[in-house]
Amino acid sequence: MRAEHHLFSPQQKKIIQTWIPLAGSWMLMGIEMPLITAILTRLENPEISLAAYGGVVFPLAMIFEAPIVMLLAASTALSKDWHAYKLLKQFMIISGFLLTTIHILLAFTPLFDIVVGQIMAIPDVLIEPSRVGLQIITPWSWAIAYRRFQQGVLIRYGHSDAVGIGTVISITVHIIVLVFGLVIGTIPGYIIGAASQACGVVAEAIYTCIRVKPVLRDQLKKEKSEKKLTWRGFLTFYIPLALTPMLAFTWQPIGSAALSRMPFPIESLAIWPVITGLVFLLRSPGLAYNEVVVALAEQKGSFRHLRKFVNQLTLTLTLIHLLVALTPLAYLWFRYVSGLSPAFTELAKIGILIAIPMTVVGSLQSWYQGLIVYSRKTKAIPEATLIFLITVIVILVFGVFVNRYIGLFVGLTGFSLAHITQTIWLWKRSREVNKQIQIRDNQTEWVV
Fold it and tell me: Half-sphere exposure of residue 197, counting CA atoms within 13 Å on the CB side?
C-alpha cells in the first residue's frame, strides 16, 4: 500500500507537527474571551461589564491591532535573511508606535466621547466603564506587533512550538489576574477583563523576545539571499495583507453601533462576546491552518496532502459545532460555564445555531488564503474582506432600518453570511495558484 493511503503518512505527520502547536496556540487564544466572560458574569453588574468590555473595549482594541496582525504571516514568509528581518523590525517599531499613539488619543482625550458616545451611540451607562477599560488595555497594540513579528521568525525556522508555549504563558497570566479579581470581588468586571488581556499580551511578548534570540543568532543571521527585500517590495506584499484585518475588524465597532440601535441593545452587547468567544474557540484550529499552508506549500509534492488535511479538518470542526449547538452542551456552556442568566442563555442557544456557517468555512478560508499568500498575489485577500464587510453592513443596515429583530440575531446572521461570501471570493481568487501548484506537483511525491 502506498504511503499516502495511511491515515498518518509521513507527509500528514509533517503537516500535523506544524499545525498542532499553532492550533494549540489559537485554541488557547480562543479560551481568553470565554474565561473573561465567565468571570465577568460572576462579578457585580455583569451585564454592564460584558457589554462595555465585549461590545466596546475589545472591538476598539481589535481595530488598533488590525494593521499589524498580519505581521505573523509576513514574517513567516519574508524573514529569509538578516536584511529582511531588520526591515520588518523597523516596520514593526514604527507601526506599533503609531497605533499606540492613536490608542492613547482615543482613550485619554474627549475624542472618546465623540467616537463612542456620538458615533457608536453606545448607551450612556456603558460610556465610563468602556473608557476605563480602553485606558487599561493601552499596551495591547505594541505587545501584539512585537510578538507576532517574532513568532513569524520562530515558525519559519522550525520553532512553532514556541508560539504555543507563549500562548500558555499568556493564558496563565490571564487566569491569575481573573482569579485575583474574582477573589477580591469588589473590582468592576470591565477593569479585570481589560487588565487580564493587557498583562497577558505583555507577558507573551516578553517570552517571545527571550525565545527568539538564539534563533536569530544561530539560524537567521546565517541565511543568505540572492535578492534583498526592499521597502517597496515589502509594502507591495504587506499592504494588501494589512488591509484584510483592517477591513475585517472594522465591522466590530460598526456592529456594536448597529446593535445599540436595535431592540434589546444592552442584552445584545452583553451576550455578543459570549457567543463569539465560543465560536472563535470552535473555529480556532482551522484558523491556524493559514500559517501551515504558507510554511509548507512551497515544498514540492505537498499540495494534495495539504488539501486532504483541510477537508478532514473542516468536517471535524463542523461536526463539533453541530454537537455543541444541537445538544444540551449549549445550555451547559452558556448557563454554567459562561454564567449567563436563564433568559440570556436561551438567547445564546439560538445565537450559536445561527453561527454554524462561521465554523463550516473557517478552515477553508485559511486554506485559500494560505495559497494566495504563497503566490504573493495578496491583493485578493483584502478584496474578499471588503466583500465580507459589505455583506455585514447590508444586513446590519437592514436590521436597524426595520428595527423589529433582536440585534444579537441580526448581527450573527450578517456575520455568518459575510463569512460565506468571503470564502467564495477567496476560492475564486485562489484557483489560479491552485492549478499552478497541482501542475508543479503532478506525479511528484513530497519527500519529508
Answer: 30
Q: What pLDDT, on the 0 to 100 scale, is given for residue 25?
A: 74
**262-289 per-position pLDDT tens digit:** 999 999 999 998 999 899 999 999 988 9
- Identify the residue whose cell numbers are 494560505: 370
Identify the pLDDT of residue 134.
96
Residue 437 near residue 297, CB atoms below 8 Å:
yes
DSSP 8-class letter at 120: S
Residues 245-250, mean pLDDT to the nearest whole number: 78
Taking alpha carbons only, the member of 31, 20, 25, 24 closest to residue 280 is 31
Per the CB < 8 A criterion, the answer to whether 95 and 110 are in contact is no
Mean pLDDT of the chain: 89
Torsion angle of alpha carbons 158, 164, 166, 167, nearest 10°? 150
Q: Report CA-CA distances (Å) from 391 to 245, 247, 417, 427.
A: 16, 12, 7, 17
Domain boundaries, the chain: 18-440
Instruction: Read off φ and ψ for residue 8, nearest 5 degrees.
Output: -125, 80
- Residue 85, all three cell numbers: 528581518
